[in-house]
Protein: Enoyl-[acyl-carrier-protein] reductase [NADH]
Organism: Luteimonas vadosa
Amino acid sequence: MGFLQGKRALVTGIASQRSIANGIAEAMRREGAELAFTYQNDKLKSRVEAAATEYGSEIVLPLDVADDAQIAACFEQLGKHWDGFDILVHAIAYAPREAIAGQFLDGLTRENFAIAHDISAYSLAAMAKAAGPMMAGRNGSILTLTYLGAERALAGYNVMGVAKASLEATVRYLAYNLGPEGTRVNAISAGPIKTLAAAGIAGFRKILGHVEENAPLRRTVTIEDVGNVAAFLCSDLASGVTGEVTYVDAGYNIIG
Ligand code: 0WD
């Protein structure tokens, strides 16, 4: 029996087979969780439907987190399938491309700063709030994805690093707020993985090479590496862990 047997998980952020959310869905399914999925727009709908079929799910809901009405509708629709659920996976981030090229100030505008924070950080809090009534009192778990650029100034990550710092602080405030209801909130800080989102970051291939040469494990991580830790953190095996950022980065963050 898998360690997520009897748990229901809503997984956001599948944009392709390479998406980190796909690795998470696979591990959670393997461990026995029942899954539901969201897709950002019509272009991604069929891909997410295909993933849902692969993972034995018929629940596929539209959700663009930029739209309050869609956030509300998503949980209303989910309520028609499930009276409650246990796991919320937030694997969503976005910054306008010009904001993650060149130096931090090159692409800095009030609008780019706001968009990056809105989609990448506020959306976690907004979803946690909307999911509240369905997750309370079930030993639920909320998980998001962050990156080392939240803590260190990394070339080209720019406003996304500032938004990830906001996301990590949001994890702590949510954990403090939702702890009394039994809901845990954590983040995985993943090492670089070649996904659609990563392709937008200037010099990404160089970053992968640098990690392969210098990380303690001398390799980059896979979506399977991240998926396994995500499944653990969202399971009762991690019942004492909340408000944490767990690194799944082949150890890269510890080196000087
Ligand atoms: O190296 C990496 N790939 C790392 C990614 C290292 C560390 C962390 N992460 C994070 C990302 O910042 C993100 O939070 O992991 C999370 C998942 O990212 P991913 O798996 O790398 O990227 P991808 O497969 O592109 O999925 C992210 C998806 C979007 O994809 P695109 O590429 O179409 O922007 O986030 C979704 C969208 O599907 N997304 C949204 N979903 C709902 N509403 C929105 C939105 N407004 N915007 C983006």
